[in-house]
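Anyone up for a design puzzle?
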Protein backbone atom coordinates (compact mmCIF):
# COMPACT_ATOMS: atom_id res chain seq x y z
CA UNK A 1 0.00 0.00 0.00
CA UNK A 2 1.29 3.52 -0.78
CA UNK A 3 1.46 6.15 1.93
CA UNK A 4 -1.62 7.92 0.58
CA UNK A 5 -3.77 4.80 0.99
CA UNK A 6 -2.38 4.09 4.46
CA UNK A 7 -3.05 7.60 5.74
CA UNK A 8 -6.51 7.78 4.18
CA UNK A 9 -7.62 4.49 5.69
CA UNK A 10 -10.39 4.84 8.33
CA UNK A 11 -9.80 3.76 11.92
CA UNK A 12 -12.27 2.90 14.65
CA UNK A 13 -12.13 4.85 17.93
CA UNK A 14 -14.60 3.45 20.43
CA UNK A 15 -18.03 3.64 18.85
CA UNK A 16 -16.88 6.12 16.18
CA UNK A 17 -14.88 5.84 13.00
CA UNK A 18 -12.28 8.43 12.03
CA UNK A 19 -12.23 8.96 8.25
CA UNK A 20 -8.45 8.80 8.07
CA UNK A 21 -5.27 8.72 10.17
CA UNK A 22 -4.94 12.47 10.71
CA UNK A 23 -5.55 13.98 14.15
CA UNK A 24 -5.49 17.76 14.54
CA UNK A 25 -3.69 18.64 17.76
CA UNK A 26 -5.20 21.02 20.28
CA UNK A 27 -3.48 24.35 19.49
CA UNK A 28 -4.21 27.36 21.68
CA UNK A 29 -4.96 30.51 19.71
CA UNK A 30 -5.74 32.92 22.56
CA UNK A 31 -8.34 34.52 20.30
CA UNK A 32 -11.54 34.04 22.27
CA UNK A 33 -13.87 36.73 23.54
CA UNK A 34 -13.70 38.27 27.03
CA UNK A 35 -16.14 35.71 28.51
CA UNK A 36 -14.17 32.73 27.17
CA UNK A 37 -16.67 31.97 24.40
CA UNK A 38 -15.45 31.11 20.91
CA UNK A 39 -15.10 34.30 18.87
CA UNK A 40 -16.11 34.49 15.20
CA UNK A 41 -12.43 33.94 14.33
CA UNK A 42 -12.25 30.85 16.57
CA UNK A 43 -15.33 29.46 14.86
CA UNK A 44 -13.99 30.10 11.38
CA UNK A 45 -10.73 28.40 12.27
CA UNK A 46 -12.48 25.18 13.35
CA UNK A 47 -14.88 25.28 10.38
CA UNK A 48 -11.81 25.38 8.14
CA UNK A 49 -10.21 22.47 10.01
CA UNK A 50 -13.44 20.48 9.63
CA UNK A 51 -13.43 21.23 5.89
CA UNK A 52 -9.85 19.96 5.88
CA UNK A 53 -11.33 16.50 6.61
CA UNK A 54 -8.96 15.24 9.32
CA UNK A 55 -10.32 12.14 11.02
CA UNK A 56 -10.33 13.92 14.37
CA UNK A 57 -10.09 17.61 15.23
CA UNK A 58 -9.30 18.41 18.84
CA UNK A 59 -10.33 21.78 20.24
CA UNK A 60 -7.51 23.80 21.81
CA UNK A 61 -7.15 23.61 25.60
CA UNK A 62 -10.41 24.87 27.11
CA UNK A 63 -10.22 25.86 30.78
CA UNK A 64 -12.69 24.43 33.31
CA UNK A 65 -12.69 27.70 35.31
CA UNK A 66 -11.88 31.34 34.56
CA UNK A 67 -9.26 31.37 37.33
CA UNK A 68 -7.27 28.46 35.88
CA UNK A 69 -6.33 30.12 32.59
CA UNK A 70 -2.80 30.33 31.24
CA UNK A 71 -3.89 32.71 28.45
CA UNK A 72 -5.76 35.94 28.78
CA UNK A 73 -8.18 35.09 25.96
CA UNK A 74 -8.41 31.35 26.57
CA UNK A 75 -11.64 29.44 25.99
CA UNK A 76 -13.56 28.46 29.13
CA UNK A 77 -16.18 25.78 29.67
CA UNK A 78 -18.50 26.74 32.52
CA UNK A 79 -22.28 27.12 32.83
CA UNK A 80 -22.40 30.55 31.07
CA UNK A 81 -20.45 29.10 28.10
CA UNK A 82 -22.94 26.28 27.51
CA UNK A 83 -25.14 27.85 24.83
CA UNK A 84 -22.34 29.65 22.91
CA UNK A 85 -20.43 26.33 22.80
CA UNK A 86 -23.53 24.56 21.45
CA UNK A 87 -23.83 27.14 18.66
CA UNK A 88 -20.11 26.82 17.97
CA UNK A 89 -20.19 23.00 17.66
CA UNK A 90 -23.24 23.24 15.42
CA UNK A 91 -21.35 25.45 12.99
CA UNK A 92 -18.23 23.27 13.02
CA UNK A 93 -20.33 20.15 12.47
CA UNK A 94 -22.23 21.69 9.60
CA UNK A 95 -18.92 22.47 7.89
CA UNK A 96 -18.27 18.70 7.88
CA UNK A 97 -20.39 16.29 9.94
CA UNK A 98 -17.94 13.42 9.35
CA UNK A 99 -15.01 14.87 11.27
CA UNK A 100 -14.91 13.73 14.88
CA UNK A 101 -14.72 16.84 17.05
CA UNK A 102 -13.45 16.52 20.62
CA UNK A 103 -12.63 19.07 23.34
CA UNK A 104 -9.37 19.19 25.32
CA UNK A 105 -10.34 19.97 28.94
CA UNK A 106 -7.71 21.62 31.09
CA UNK A 107 -6.84 23.40 34.31
CA UNK A 108 -3.51 25.21 34.35
CA UNK A 109 -2.67 24.80 38.06
CA UNK A 110 0.78 26.30 38.64
CA UNK A 111 0.80 27.51 35.02
CA UNK A 112 -2.29 29.68 35.60
CA UNK A 113 -1.25 33.25 35.04
CA UNK A 114 -0.86 35.25 38.26
CA UNK A 115 -1.89 38.36 36.26
CA UNK A 116 -5.47 37.30 35.49
CA UNK A 117 -5.91 33.87 37.15
CA UNK A 118 -4.99 32.13 40.41
CA UNK A 119 -1.76 30.19 40.46
CA UNK A 120 -2.21 27.02 42.55
CA UNK A 121 0.07 24.07 43.18
CA UNK A 122 0.16 20.55 44.60
CA UNK A 123 3.79 21.08 45.66
CA UNK A 124 5.58 24.37 44.86
CA UNK A 125 8.03 23.83 42.00
CA UNK A 126 11.19 25.93 41.84
CA UNK A 127 10.50 28.96 39.62
CA UNK A 128 6.70 28.54 39.70
CA UNK A 129 5.24 28.48 43.23
CA UNK A 130 1.53 29.14 43.76
CA UNK A 131 -1.03 28.67 46.55
CA UNK A 132 -0.82 25.17 48.05
CA UNK A 133 -4.03 23.29 47.26
CA UNK A 134 -6.07 21.50 49.92
CA UNK A 135 -7.81 18.16 49.31
CA UNK A 136 -11.18 19.93 49.25
CA UNK A 137 -9.93 22.32 46.58
CA UNK A 138 -8.79 19.41 44.41
CA UNK A 139 -12.19 17.75 44.92
CA UNK A 140 -13.74 21.00 43.64
CA UNK A 141 -11.42 20.93 40.59
CA UNK A 142 -12.69 17.39 39.87
CA UNK A 143 -16.29 18.72 40.10
CA UNK A 144 -15.37 21.45 37.61
CA UNK A 145 -13.96 18.88 35.17
CA UNK A 146 -17.07 16.70 35.48
CA UNK A 147 -19.37 19.65 34.77
CA UNK A 148 -17.16 20.66 31.83
CA UNK A 149 -17.41 17.12 30.39
CA UNK A 150 -21.21 17.27 30.67
CA UNK A 151 -21.27 20.66 28.96
CA UNK A 152 -19.02 19.35 26.16
CA UNK A 153 -21.37 16.39 25.69
CA UNK A 154 -24.50 18.56 25.73
CA UNK A 155 -22.90 21.01 23.31
CA UNK A 156 -22.58 18.20 20.76
CA UNK A 157 -18.86 17.39 21.00
CA UNK A 158 -18.01 13.77 20.17
CA UNK A 159 -15.72 13.34 23.14
CA UNK A 160 -13.02 14.79 25.36
CA UNK A 161 -9.27 14.70 25.77
CA UNK A 162 -8.67 14.95 29.52
CA UNK A 163 -5.39 16.85 29.40
CA UNK A 164 -2.66 15.07 31.39
CA UNK A 165 0.37 16.56 29.67
CA UNK A 166 2.74 19.51 29.25
CA UNK A 167 2.97 20.49 32.91
CA UNK A 168 -0.69 21.52 33.28
CA UNK A 169 -2.68 20.47 36.35
CA UNK A 170 -3.28 16.87 35.19
CA UNK A 171 0.46 16.24 34.93
CA UNK A 172 1.29 18.22 38.09
CA UNK A 173 -0.72 15.75 40.18
CA UNK A 174 0.72 12.68 38.44
CA UNK A 175 4.41 13.51 38.69
CA UNK A 176 6.68 12.05 41.40
CA UNK A 177 7.49 15.64 42.44
CA UNK A 178 3.98 15.67 44.01
CA UNK A 179 5.61 13.90 46.95
CA UNK A 180 3.55 15.54 49.74
CA UNK A 181 1.71 12.85 51.71
CA UNK A 182 -1.97 13.56 51.10
CA UNK A 183 -5.00 12.09 49.34
CA UNK A 184 -3.65 13.05 45.89
CA UNK A 185 0.10 12.77 46.44
CA UNK A 186 3.04 10.71 47.65
CA UNK A 187 2.59 7.06 46.63
CA UNK A 188 1.79 6.39 42.95
CA UNK A 189 -1.58 4.92 43.98
CA UNK A 190 -2.53 8.36 45.37
CA UNK A 191 -1.13 10.42 42.49
CA UNK A 192 -2.97 8.40 39.84
CA UNK A 193 -6.23 8.49 41.82
CA UNK A 194 -7.02 12.01 40.60
CA UNK A 195 -7.18 10.84 36.97
CA UNK A 196 -8.93 7.59 37.88
CA UNK A 197 -11.64 9.41 39.90
CA UNK A 198 -12.09 11.87 37.08
CA UNK A 199 -12.65 9.18 34.47
CA UNK A 200 -15.07 7.25 36.70
CA UNK A 201 -17.08 10.32 37.62
CA UNK A 202 -17.20 11.61 34.04
CA UNK A 203 -18.39 8.23 32.69
CA UNK A 204 -21.16 8.19 35.29
CA UNK A 205 -22.20 11.82 34.82
CA UNK A 206 -22.22 11.76 31.01
CA UNK A 207 -23.72 8.27 30.74
CA UNK A 208 -23.16 7.95 26.98
CA UNK A 209 -20.98 5.07 25.81
CA UNK A 210 -20.56 6.68 22.38
CA UNK A 211 -18.94 9.77 23.92
CA UNK A 212 -15.19 9.36 23.46
CA UNK A 213 -12.76 9.82 26.31
CA UNK A 214 -8.97 9.74 26.22
CA UNK A 215 -5.94 11.77 27.28
CA UNK A 216 -2.88 13.48 25.91
CA UNK A 217 -0.02 12.34 28.11
CA UNK A 218 3.60 13.47 28.44
CA UNK A 219 5.51 10.19 28.55
CA UNK A 220 8.53 11.94 30.07
CA UNK A 221 8.56 15.54 31.28
CA UNK A 222 12.35 15.54 31.30
CA UNK A 223 13.18 17.37 34.55
CA UNK A 224 13.80 16.19 38.13
CA UNK A 225 10.57 14.75 39.54
CA UNK A 226 8.63 15.27 36.30
CA UNK A 227 6.14 12.65 35.13
CA UNK A 228 7.87 9.58 33.68
CA UNK A 229 10.92 9.88 35.96
CA UNK A 230 12.01 7.45 38.65
CA UNK A 231 11.66 9.69 41.70
CA UNK A 232 10.75 13.13 43.12
CA UNK A 233 14.28 14.50 42.60
CA UNK A 234 15.40 12.42 39.62
CA UNK A 235 15.27 13.35 35.93
CA UNK A 236 15.98 9.73 34.90
CA UNK A 237 13.33 8.33 32.56
CA UNK A 238 11.18 5.48 33.82
CA UNK A 239 7.98 4.58 31.99
CA UNK A 240 6.55 2.34 34.73
CA UNK A 241 4.04 4.94 35.94
CA UNK A 242 3.00 6.30 32.52
CA UNK A 243 2.32 2.78 31.22
CA UNK A 244 0.44 1.81 34.39
CA UNK A 245 -1.62 4.99 33.97
CA UNK A 246 -2.60 4.00 30.42
CA UNK A 247 -3.81 0.59 31.56
CA UNK A 248 -5.74 2.06 34.49
CA UNK A 249 -7.44 4.68 32.31
CA UNK A 250 -8.23 2.05 29.69
CA UNK A 251 -10.01 0.02 32.37
CA UNK A 252 -12.02 3.16 33.13
CA UNK A 253 -13.12 3.68 29.54
CA UNK A 254 -10.28 5.44 27.67
CA UNK A 255 -10.43 4.65 23.96
CA UNK A 256 -7.46 6.72 22.76
CA UNK A 257 -4.23 8.31 23.97
CA UNK A 258 -2.23 11.10 22.40
CA UNK A 259 1.43 10.52 23.13
CA UNK A 260 3.34 13.65 23.91
CA UNK A 261 6.34 14.66 26.02
CA UNK A 262 7.88 17.46 27.97
CA UNK A 263 6.55 20.45 29.83
CA UNK A 264 6.98 23.40 27.44
CA UNK A 265 7.94 26.00 30.07
CA UNK A 266 10.84 23.76 31.13
CA UNK A 267 11.63 21.28 28.34
CA UNK A 268 10.20 22.87 25.18
CA UNK A 269 12.13 20.78 22.63
CA UNK A 270 10.58 17.60 23.98
CA UNK A 271 7.08 18.99 23.38
CA UNK A 272 7.75 20.76 20.10
CA UNK A 273 10.79 19.47 18.32
CA UNK A 274 13.05 22.26 17.13
CA UNK A 275 14.03 22.31 13.45
CA UNK A 276 17.73 22.29 14.40
CA UNK A 277 17.35 18.93 16.15
CA UNK A 278 14.74 17.17 13.97
CA UNK A 279 15.88 13.71 15.09
CA UNK A 280 14.41 14.39 18.57
CA UNK A 281 11.08 13.59 16.90
CA UNK A 282 12.15 9.94 16.61
CA UNK A 283 12.22 9.63 20.42
CA UNK A 284 8.50 10.39 20.38
CA UNK A 285 7.89 7.39 18.16
CA UNK A 286 9.67 5.24 20.74
CA UNK A 287 7.23 6.47 23.39
CA UNK A 288 4.27 5.95 21.04
CA UNK A 289 5.41 2.37 20.45
CA UNK A 290 5.70 1.74 24.19
CA UNK A 291 2.18 3.17 24.62
CA UNK A 292 0.92 0.89 21.85
CA UNK A 293 2.48 -2.17 23.46
CA UNK A 294 0.97 -1.38 26.84
CA UNK A 295 -2.67 -1.09 25.73
CA UNK A 296 -5.32 -3.29 24.13
CA UNK A 297 -5.11 -3.60 20.32
CA UNK A 298 -8.32 -1.58 19.84
CA UNK A 299 -7.09 1.41 21.88
CA UNK A 300 -5.98 4.09 19.45
CA UNK A 301 -2.52 5.61 19.91
CA UNK A 302 -1.90 8.98 18.33
CA UNK A 303 1.71 10.10 17.88
CA UNK A 304 2.97 13.70 18.19
CA UNK A 305 5.78 15.80 16.79
CA UNK A 306 5.29 15.21 13.09
CA UNK A 307 5.41 18.82 11.85
CA UNK A 308 9.20 18.84 11.80
CA UNK A 309 9.29 16.11 9.10
CA UNK A 310 7.72 18.52 6.58
CA UNK A 311 7.94 17.51 2.90
CA UNK A 312 11.30 15.82 3.44
CA UNK A 313 13.14 19.16 3.53
CA UNK A 314 13.93 18.68 7.21
CA UNK A 315 17.67 18.37 7.77
CA UNK A 316 17.47 14.68 8.71
CA UNK A 317 20.54 12.74 7.65
CA UNK A 318 21.11 9.15 6.56
CA UNK A 319 17.67 8.96 4.93
CA UNK A 320 16.42 10.09 1.53
CA UNK A 321 14.10 13.12 1.53
CA UNK A 322 11.40 11.12 -0.29
CA UNK A 323 11.22 8.71 2.67
CA UNK A 324 11.67 11.17 5.53
CA UNK A 325 8.74 13.53 4.85
CA UNK A 326 5.74 13.70 7.18
CA UNK A 327 3.51 11.72 4.79
CA UNK A 328 5.77 8.75 3.90
CA UNK A 329 7.32 8.54 7.36
CA UNK A 330 3.96 8.96 9.14
CA UNK A 331 2.48 6.16 6.99
CA UNK A 332 5.46 3.95 7.81
CA UNK A 333 4.79 4.45 11.53
CA UNK A 334 1.17 3.37 11.00
CA UNK A 335 2.10 0.37 8.82
CA UNK A 336 4.72 -0.90 11.25
CA UNK A 337 2.30 -0.72 14.19
CA UNK A 338 4.14 2.03 16.11
CA UNK A 339 0.95 4.10 16.30
CA UNK A 340 -2.52 4.37 14.73
CA UNK A 341 -2.84 8.06 13.87
CA UNK A 342 -0.47 10.96 13.32
CA UNK A 343 -1.12 14.29 14.97
CA UNK A 344 -0.58 17.63 13.26
CA UNK A 345 0.16 20.61 15.48
CA UNK A 346 2.11 23.51 13.98
CA UNK A 347 1.44 22.01 10.53
CA UNK A 348 -2.29 22.52 11.08
CA UNK A 349 -1.73 26.29 11.42
CA UNK A 350 0.26 26.28 8.15
CA UNK A 351 -2.34 24.28 6.23
CA UNK A 352 -5.64 23.24 7.83
CA UNK A 353 -6.63 21.50 4.59
CA UNK A 354 -3.77 18.97 4.39
CA UNK A 355 -5.88 15.75 4.65
CA UNK A 356 -8.34 16.96 2.02
CA UNK A 357 -5.54 17.99 -0.32
CA UNK A 358 -4.02 14.52 0.01
CA UNK A 359 -7.41 12.90 -0.68
CA UNK A 360 -8.01 15.13 -3.71
CA UNK A 361 -4.60 14.26 -5.19
CA UNK A 362 -3.36 17.84 -4.58
CA UNK A 363 -0.36 16.94 -2.46
CA UNK A 364 1.69 19.49 -4.40
CA UNK A 365 -0.53 22.29 -3.04
CA UNK A 366 0.17 21.51 0.63
CA UNK A 367 1.66 24.47 2.49
CA UNK A 368 4.37 23.01 4.67
CA UNK A 369 5.11 24.32 8.15
CA UNK A 370 8.56 25.91 8.23
CA UNK A 371 8.93 25.09 11.96
CA UNK A 372 9.88 28.73 12.56
CA UNK A 373 8.03 28.63 15.91
CA UNK A 374 6.62 32.11 15.40
CA UNK A 375 3.24 30.66 16.45
CA UNK A 376 4.79 29.78 19.78
CA UNK A 377 6.23 33.28 20.08
CA UNK A 378 2.77 34.78 19.52
CA UNK A 379 1.35 32.50 22.22
CA UNK A 380 4.05 33.48 24.73
CA UNK A 381 3.33 37.14 23.96
CA UNK A 382 -0.37 36.58 24.81
CA UNK A 383 -1.57 37.73 21.39
CA UNK A 384 -3.84 35.81 19.00
CA UNK A 385 -1.96 32.88 17.45
CA UNK A 386 -1.68 31.60 13.89
CA UNK A 387 0.79 31.04 11.07
CA UNK A 388 2.91 34.10 10.32
CA UNK A 389 4.43 32.40 7.26
CA UNK A 390 1.17 32.00 5.31
CA UNK A 391 -1.26 34.42 6.96
CA UNK A 392 -0.58 38.16 6.79
CA UNK A 393 -2.66 38.93 9.90
CA UNK A 394 -0.12 37.04 12.00
CA UNK A 395 2.93 38.35 10.11
CA UNK A 396 1.75 41.89 10.88
CA UNK A 397 1.00 41.00 14.48
CA UNK A 398 4.46 39.54 14.98
CA UNK A 399 6.20 42.54 13.40
CA UNK A 400 4.14 44.90 15.58
CA UNK A 401 4.91 42.91 18.75
CA UNK A 402 8.63 42.83 18.04
CA UNK A 403 8.62 46.58 17.36
CA UNK A 404 6.78 47.23 20.60
CA UNK A 405 8.63 44.83 22.88
CA UNK A 406 11.86 43.88 21.12
CA UNK A 407 13.10 40.34 20.95
CA UNK A 408 11.36 37.74 23.05
CA UNK A 409 14.13 37.47 25.66
CA UNK A 410 13.96 41.26 26.19
CA UNK A 411 10.20 41.10 26.53
CA UNK A 412 10.65 38.66 29.39
CA UNK A 413 13.44 40.28 31.36
C1 LIG B 1 1.02 27.87 19.56
C2 LIG B 1 0.89 26.49 20.19
C3 LIG B 1 -0.24 26.19 20.93
C4 LIG B 1 -0.37 24.92 21.52
N1 LIG B 1 -1.50 24.62 22.25
C5 LIG B 1 -1.66 23.39 22.78
C6 LIG B 1 -2.85 23.04 23.48
O1 LIG B 1 -3.82 23.80 23.58
N2 LIG B 1 -2.91 21.79 24.04
C7 LIG B 1 -1.90 20.87 23.90
O2 LIG B 1 -2.01 19.76 24.40
N3 LIG B 1 -0.78 21.18 23.21
C8 LIG B 1 -0.65 22.39 22.64
N4 LIG B 1 0.47 22.67 21.90
C9 LIG B 1 1.41 21.58 21.57
C10 LIG B 1 0.96 20.90 20.27
O3 LIG B 1 -0.37 20.41 20.35
C11 LIG B 1 1.88 19.75 19.84
O4 LIG B 1 1.89 18.77 20.85
C12 LIG B 1 3.30 20.21 19.53
O5 LIG B 1 3.29 21.42 18.81
C13 LIG B 1 4.07 19.15 18.72
O6 LIG B 1 3.42 18.87 17.50
P1 LIG B 1 3.90 19.50 16.09
O7 LIG B 1 5.32 19.12 15.89
O8 LIG B 1 2.98 18.89 15.08
O9 LIG B 1 3.74 20.98 16.18
C14 LIG B 1 0.63 23.95 21.33
C15 LIG B 1 1.76 24.27 20.58
C16 LIG B 1 1.89 25.53 20.01
C17 LIG B 1 3.11 25.83 19.18
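Challenge accepted. My sequence:
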Amino acid sequence: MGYRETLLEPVKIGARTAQNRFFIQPMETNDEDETGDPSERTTQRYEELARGEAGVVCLEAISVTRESRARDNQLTIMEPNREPLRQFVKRVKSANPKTIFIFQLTHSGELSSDKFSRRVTVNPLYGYGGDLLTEDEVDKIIDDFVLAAQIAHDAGADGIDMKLCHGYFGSQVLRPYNSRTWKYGGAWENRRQFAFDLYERIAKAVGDKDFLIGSKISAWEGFPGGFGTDGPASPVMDLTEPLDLLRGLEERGAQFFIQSAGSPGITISLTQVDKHIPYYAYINQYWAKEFKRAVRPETVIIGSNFSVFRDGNNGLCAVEAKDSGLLPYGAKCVESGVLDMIALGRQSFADPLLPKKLRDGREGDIKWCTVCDNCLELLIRQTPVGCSTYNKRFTDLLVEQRKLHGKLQQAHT
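A detail worth pointing out: The two ends are 53 Å apart (CA to CA).
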